[in-house]
Design a protein that fits this description.
The complex is a heterodimer of chains A (96) and B (384).
Chain A lengths: L6 E5 L3 E6 L2 E6 L4 E6 L1 H8 L4 E2 H12 L3 H17 L3 E6 L2
Antiparallel strand pairs in A: 1-5, 1-6, 2-3, 3-4
Helix pairs in contact in A: 2-3
Chain B lengths: L2 H10 L12 H13 L3 H7 L3 H6 L4 H34 L5 E3 L1 H8 L10 E5 L5 H10 L3 E2 L11 E8 L4 E8 L6 H4 L4 H6 L2 E2 L8 E2 L2 H14 L5 E3 L2 E3 L5 H13 L2 H13 L3 H15 L18 H6 L3 H11 L3 H12 L3 H7 L8 H21 L1
Parallel strand pairs in B: 1-7, 2-5
Antiparallel strand pairs in B: 1-2, 3-4, 4-5, 6-7, 8-9
Classes of the chains: A alpha+beta (96), B alpha+beta (384).
Chain lengths: 96, 384
């Protein structure tokens, strides 16, 4: 499943999460599968609490982690693709 | 109390005790065994979050990692458990059996920084006695299977239900109660209606969740702890009988910290009124010793010069006394005989499961064996 850089994504209702010692633990309740995210992955998950685009995520992460923007965009895009594949987030379209 | 338990208690008090200089592998193994038994590994992990301080105090990384894994496992269990309760609670309300969540789960969502920190094996739900059957059907509709158990009008006031996730080897158990306790003598101390009249919402669990208000919750926590002097509880499949499990005392510590001075006075009065003053006082004292729990100044318990109240006496008594007291608490000879028959002659299906592998013709002997085992256990506990 693809998405554009302006398209907003949000967590799906079937993905519930909790934090343990700097790690976010996520349960996909329909599939019964668990995932863990930490570091920048955890920050992405927290930002996805509200509908957010790739560009907005990258801007926030570059500020927070002081990382190279190009590398950050590639890593974030890959993570979002994985979250979409695992049905933890869903695309909402472009903000009007 | 052992040196390991003193260290655990100090950690839970939020202090920064040093790991003992001579605490080699044996001590670490005992620390892990005792913290698991007491149900506090995730709480220990929570208090140990500061990595620099942890290293300064000499805590072994392997112990920290074991506690972290337990915290993660509890967090994973909690997410699914909450999701299941989010389905079950509205379903029970739909059949007019709105439950009151009590004991571990209610306290987990009311008192703890994160609910998974309160280790537990199940959730206790209290429904009106008249709504027992619709509630049972509702739980089955939600995908829960009934746990085989003895059944009858007097032998038990609860039914267990389980939902299993084989993929991650999780079991989620709900104990559906229609009385607050299985003891005939204790069951009448608090009715569903009493608790419902003062129930409060548990929004952290779900918008449908109702919990017990803190004054009554504290009395129930003290009673629950004392019940386990005789009633077994299970940790990793092993049965124990003891009142000194730290997680229960930590609940009492947290509840005490929640009460205003006026509520504390109300707690003492309620304990007196229910005949549970000695039980509650002992639990509060133990929590104060272990966790330095906050109790208002001038919060003395009234002097008791008379003999113990029935509930206090019951909770401090051997199993044989409790059995006689429960029998006396049942009104009418006919009901008493029914209670005895439910104990000694449980349903055939239950007997077949308990003694799986026995031939069909052995059933009468199995009933005799059960009666003999029950008598032996009762005598052992009486003299043990």
């Amino acid at each position: 499943m693809g998405f554009t850089k302006e398209e907003r994504l949000e967590r799906i209702g079937e993905a519930v999460s909790t934090e343990v010692d700097g790690t976010v633990v996520i349960l996909q309740t329909e599939e019964g599968t668990y995932y863990q995210l930490d570091g920048a992955g955890k920050a992405v998950w927290e930002l996805l609490d509200e509908p957010t685009s790739l560009e907005a995520l990258v801007a926030a992460l570059v500020t927070e982690f002081e990382v190279d923007e190009t590398r950050c965009r590639a890593d974030t895009e890959a993570l979002l693709g994985e979250l979409l594949d695992r049905r933890l987030v869903r695309p909402l379209g472009v903000a009007g | 109390m052992t040196d390991v338990e003193e260290l655990i208690s100090a950690i839970l008090r939020g202090e920064n005790p040093r790991w003992p200089a001579d605490g080699l592998d044996g001590f670490a193994a005992r620390f892990l065994e005792r913290s698991a038994y007491h149900g506090v590994q995730a709480l220990v992990h929570h208090h140990w979050r500061n990595e620099t301080r942890r290293a300064d105090l000499g805590y072994p990384e392997a112990v920290w990692e074991a506690c972290r894994k337990q915290a993660l496992a509890q967090a994973m269990w909690e997410m699914r458990h909450r999701e299941l309760l989010g389905r079950v609670l509205p379903r029970l309300s739909e059949v007019d059996a709105r439950p009151i969540v009590f004991k571990g789960t209610a306290l987990a969502y009311d008192l703890y920084p994160a609910p998974f920190l309160r280790a537990r094996a199940d959730t206790d739900l209290l429904v009106p006695a008249a709504k027992r059957e619709p509630a049972i059907r509702a739980l089955e509709d939600c995908g829960f299977s009934r746990v085989p158990n003895v059944s009858g009008e007097f032998v038990t006031y609860e039914a267990g239900f389980v939902w299993r996730d084989a993929r991650v080897q999780q079991a989620h158990v709900l104990d559906l109660h229609w009385r607050i306790s299985n003891s005939k003598l204790l069951a009448n101390l608090f009715s569903y209606e009493d608790l419902r009249a003062r129930a409060r919402k548990l929004p952290a669990l779900s918008e449908d969740a109702l919990g017990v208000e803190p004054v009554t919750a504290l009395v129930l926590a003290c009673m629950h702890r004392a019940v386990h002097k005789q009633a077994p509880y299970y940790v990793d499949g092993v049965a124990y009988r003891s009142e000194d499990r730290l997680i229960w005392l930590y609940d009492i510590h947290c509840l005490l910290g929640r009460l205003s001075p006026a509520q504390h006075r109300e707690f003492v009065e309620l304990a007196e009124r229910k005949g549970l003053a000695a039980t509650c006082q002992a639990a509060v004292e133990r929590a104060r010793v272990l966790f330095h729990s906050a109790v208002p100044e001038n919060a003395d318990w009234p002097a008791r010069n008379r003999s113990p109240e029935p509930a206090d006496r019951y909770l401090d008594a051997p199993a044989a006394y409790q059995f006689r007291a429960d029998l006396r608490a049942i009104a009418g000879v006919r009901n008493k005989l029914k209670f005895l028959s439910e104990i000694f002659f449980p349903p055939e299906s239950w007997m077949r499961r308990k003694y799986s592998g026995a031939k069909p013709g052995w059933l009468p002997w199995l009933y005799l064996r059960r009666a003999g085992e029950g008598l032996w256990k009762s005598l052992r506990r009486r003299t043990g």
